[in-house]
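Appendix B. One record, verbatim.
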Amino acid sequence: MKGNSSETYIFDGKGVLALIGGFIVAILVVALFNAFSLLVFKINYQYENFYQFFITAAGFLGSILAFDYFICRPSIGRKLNFNMSASNFGTYLLIFPMMFGMMLIAEFFTAIIPTTGPFFGEFYQYFLKLMAEMTTDKATLILFVVIVAPVLEEIIFRGIIMKGLINKGLNPTKAIIISAVIFGIVHQNPWQFVGAGLLGCVLGLVYYKTKSLLLAILLHAFNNLLSAIFLLSGHTESLSETFQVSEFLILGAGIIIFGIFYYLFMKKYQVHPSEK
């Protein structure tokens, strides 16, 4: 039966299973394809630079398709659909500086996490090695982190998880934080967990206030593009290291920039009960 326009999906335990199940199935399909290629053509794509990007993207896409087919369509009678409308120029002048300010704040707190010691030391060296391997294929890196990842990740973490939690009746602030924390966890390392978690809060806030997933995608792409540029040019994502300035100066600038534009953004966008 077709759902009416007032019906919407929620995110609960079934949604969790759909996302995880879709991710696992998609990864298995890619792995089986690679095994077939190895047996028949003697080509092992696992050691190609693009393979890690490709299998990750496949996993995210599998999660989205599984949630759409098993959760969304049975509950509301139609496929996943998100508001991708653009906004006026003034909105962009508020959200991009706000995002940049949080990027500076996130950098400071990321730098606090140890990079030496019995646990963090080995983990950090593995992380550096992984980042170095990712930067060997610059075109693939830019394509994935600036285009593919922002689209797929925002659909999952803001469009499905955060929106689904709000639709279920959870307080919007809690929904934003929960989706941001999960967003940080999936990065699988403590350094990106902090940054992704803080930036995820901004992405969630912008999506909740503007109702446009496109704006969250653009902000995500903006963050990833800057990170990729610094990583490719100086082998570090740190602005303080790149420009040789104090981390406390970075933090202070971030607080001021974020605070100003957060206030202006919150003042401009007031969400009415009917829009929640």
